[in-house]
Design goal:
about 210 residues; globular; binds flavin mononucleotide
């Protein structure tokens, strides 16, 4: 069959053995690139196998809002893909993962996911996560919200996704931006079932 157009072999880039600690992180062009950075920092230290997808627009916000370059961010991830790489393992449901966190998630990416449109690797991977009934968490960032945003959030929720706008809580008396970010990230990691003590828990000392 060598030479058959039906058997073009792209070759494995990672083992397709389900690792309990394998997770997809996508960063899109909404404000709040730092959420993606901090999630990757945590997962890297905790020895997770991370599959990072960067949308083209995320590179603009990453540059404007943080002191991390694309290459710095890629070094925190086990594998990095561009938003147009549809041959990436994460584009297929046969590649098993714990789930996917989109941090931050733009209204454009939310709209595509909500409507089953897979025009980029970010939205294809999210579509796969939903169809495979895995955990999808979207740190949607926009304000104020109009009816289309809200309808899209409802659609994603009805399909099993979790819409998690990074809205800070103040009951823990945060004293820095890091405290605020860690509080959100801690709750996001909790949702995927990842043990962490990034933030104080109400009623408990850490
Ligand atoms: C500095 C900057 C901040 C932005 N912030 C947001 C935002 O908070 N929420 C949002 O939905 N879009 C925001 N956008 C617009 C998105 O980048 C734009 O809609 C883009 O098409 C999103 O594409 P992506 O989801 O493929 O990354 C911002 C753009 C720039 C340049």
């Amino acid at each position: 069959m060598v030479g058959s157009p039906f058997f073009c072999y792209y070759g494995p880039r990672t083992k397709n053995v389900m690792s309990k600690k394998r997770i997809i992180v996508a960063v899109t062009g909404a404000s709040g690139a730092v959420y993606g950075v901090k999630i990757l920092e945590f997962l890297s230290k905790a020895s997770f196998e991370t599959h990072l997808i960067l949308s083209d627009n995320s590179k603009i916000t990453l540059n404007l809002e943080t002191c991390y370059s694309v290459s710095d961010l890629s070094q925190l991830a086990s594998f990095t893909y561009s938003g147009s790489d549809m041959t990436a393992p994460v584009a297929s449901g046969s590649f098993q993962t714990m789930g996917m966190i989109v941090a931050p998630c733009s209204m454009k990416t939310l709209a595509e996911i909500a409507n089953g449109i897979s025009s980029s690797l970010v939205t294809r991977a999210a579509d796969v996560i939903l169809k495979e009934r895995r955990k999808l968490i979207l740190l949607t960032r926009e304000t104020p919200l109009h009816a289309i945003h809200l309808k899209n959030m409802l659609s994603v929720t009805q399909s099993g996704g979790i819409v998690f706008p990074p809205v800070p809580g103040f009951y823990n008396k945060p004293s820095s931006i890091d405290d605020i970010i860690n509080h959100t990230i801690s709750r996001v990691l909790d949702l995927v079932g990842i043990e962490n003590s990034l933030a104080p828990r109400w009623g408990m000392s850490i």
